[in-house]
Amino acid sequence: MKPALLSLLSLFFLSACQVPSSISKSTATMPLGSELKVALPPLIVGLEAPTWEDVQPVEENAPSWSKPVNDTYTRVSTGRKVVAITFDDGPHPENTPRLLDMLKERRIKATFYVVGNMVKYSPQLIRRMIAEGHEIGNHTVTHGNLARMSDDALRKELQAAHDQIIAETGVTPRTMRPPGGAIKKSQKELMLREFGYPTILWSVDPEDWKRPGPAVVTSRLVNGASPGGILLVHDLHKPTVDAMPSTLDQLLAQGYEFVTVTELIELDEQVSD
Ligand SMILES: [Zn+2]
User: Fold this and answer.
1) CATH for the stretch 71-266
2) pTM here?
3) Whether 88 is catalytic
4) Does the active-site annotation cover 234?
């Protein structure tokens, strides 16, 4: 990919993909049923981006959960010292391969919430993620604000990204993350009912997209981690990937085991009502 395109992608995500800190901080503790409202411009401004219209529906046999699942998770309750680390908004043509090398070296499994229009630029990278044991989650095609969409628009966003992930990897995504955490309770219920997707938010947000520096990202993640937690970061940003060796090594040294989001949900000891 040309450097100009890379910098354009980075510029876009710096300006568009991010959520004001006041919103992202409140998300983890917001009560179910409340709605976040964030402004997220369309993906990849200025580029001729592929869209979901050219994705063909696919046949699939979707795996099911072994137990009833909640419509939302910010973390799970477990006595095991596990965390799920999640990387959003990729795959990025340079940062993501570097991250995958770091994860492989440490035998760590992660979950990637990929954006359909990013996958179109680097489809080989989600195939590599699957080949190396990681999990792919649905982060929509255009990275728009789902809370402002009609149910039909929401379905199109999710279905197209869902089909695209299966078409590229042969693996069915099991969970989704709404861009910016913006989602309504009724939409969460729709996604669980129609797609089998729990909505995955997070327990730790280091606000890495504000580029506070790798050392700060590391300390926020390490200090914020707790058993059953979900860590949110973005493989779109180079300083975030730069923060990973130290972050991962410190958490491993503390005895944390890294699991994927679906594994984390299966470990949830909370009884659903
Ligand atoms: Zn995102």
Assistant:
1) 3.20.20.370
2) 0.82
3) yes
4) yes
